[in-house]
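Why does this matter for the project? Reviewers at the last site visit asked to see concrete outputs rather than summary tables. In response, this paragraph embeds two records directly. Each consists of the residue sequence and, immediately after it, the corresponding structure tokens. Nothing has been edited or filtered.
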Amino acid sequence: MTPTIGGALSGAAWRKSSHSGDEGACVELASLPGRVAVRDSKDPGGPVLLFPPAAWSAFATAPPRR
């Protein structure tokens, strides 16, 4: 992780997904310049996945698989 990303993550405004349930299986998102950061809410100091905005948008708007 570059210092620029590390600094952006430390000041990121994380929000919980509206699809997260009450069982603790929660995903949190943060918008960064040119990226969307995703992490497990149970492990806020753990790994973070970074996606280009277009890739995250395609994932988030894809129809559910059955």
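We now turn to the second protein, recorded in exactly the same manner.
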Amino acid sequence: MALVLHRPQSSASAADRPLVHQIGPQVGPRSNLDRASIGLTGRVITTERRVLIVAVLASFVAFLDGSIITVALPAISRELGGGLVLAQWVVDGYLLSLGALILVAGSLSDTFGRVRVLRIGLVWFGIASLACAVAPWGSALVLARVIQGMAAALLVPSSLALITSTFSGAAQGRMIGAWTGWTGIAGIMGPVFGGILVDTASWRLIFGLNVIPIAVTLVLLGRLDEPARARPAAPIDAWGAGLAALGLGGPVFALIEQGRLGWASPIVFVPLVVGLLSFAGFLWWEARAPHPMMPLSLFTIRNFGVGNIATVGVYAALGLGFFVFTLYLQQVGGLSATAAGFAGIPATIMLLLFATLFGTLAGRYGPRMFMAVGPVVAGVGFLLLIGAVPPIDLWLRVVPAIVVIGLGLAITVAPLTSAVLGSVRPEQAGIGSAVNNAVARVAGLVAVALAGTIIGGALDVDGFQRVMVVVAGLMFAGGIASWLGIRTPASVAAPEHPE
């Protein structure tokens, strides 16, 4: 890749590490090689900074669009109709295509290059965003959201793979922490901007404004060289992609529609059975396919496998928790869309302040302790929200709980990402990132589809409290899995000795 740092060839041991970790304070007079390295360092730092900005912006629009929609759902339902079912489909249509195709996108990123795949994803994301902004009816909006999810699948793994391919060791932990912090901010700041736009203008603007960060990212991408392809293009796993789409789509359709039609309806029962059989077929095929889009062998790597188990608990909790929380504040608590959006700001602040710190600490001491403690802290925060009953006192019942949730997320997300991606080889960074992101999106997808079942009909105080208990349980499960299964990497456990 053109973005990989060049390494001096004069030392065999030095060639095993990126140049950015070789340059530091020197003892004694500086040689000509030292001065050349310093000059090169200035250029490399600029390139690295640009890589980080591109990675953050490309992921930012995908995460922002996944979260900003929640605060606009009541307004969308008032204008287009559809009630809770349309709200679930507007969210899950995006997550469904994202989760089903992100694995293929990860393989494309590894094969054809991060920059090229990012550029295509950004263009299509912008087109789909404009289609959402002008959607005349609910089904058209859901279709545009599905296309958005397909484009987002190209963005997330490629952007994170840029970071993991450029940085290593503690520096990688810091950069993943920065990436996680800003993309996490997108996920929680989305409702703030969405609420303001819904109350002051129209929910349609939340999609139309996507073109601004997309245009900026495309300009920055133009200044990055397309990395040379490291290997011939592998055939696309069409069977795997098709089986994954059916395996996810069928059960999600059944979970959403069963509240309206009932489990006995063939319209619900048949997609459920077909989906479950397709998912089983997907696993069977991936174990035998010559070019699988989800190499099952990755899950034999301990930290990768356990990290993805923890991902299921954490991101299922986040998807379900914030989906219901935002609806509840408006539909039951009577808050405006803006107020409901601002309720998440404390968590945003916690992520902004502490995500990079905990990413750095995880790179230094290992991710296990942080991945175990963080979800428990976030789970306690969701339990605190049980006390938010009408008339809702935001400062007493909501803000403290959201602060605790934000702290738990700051402790968790960067070490979790670092543990999963740090366990795979650099050339597998794209597919590793894609698998982990697919697991996260699918966990949120299924959790949102289950919202109606957990709520039990119309959203009320009792239904909201049941959801918060379930969400806390999912968080606790993620923390327990991490404590029992995650191991500290040897490179962290063994102190480094200077050469």
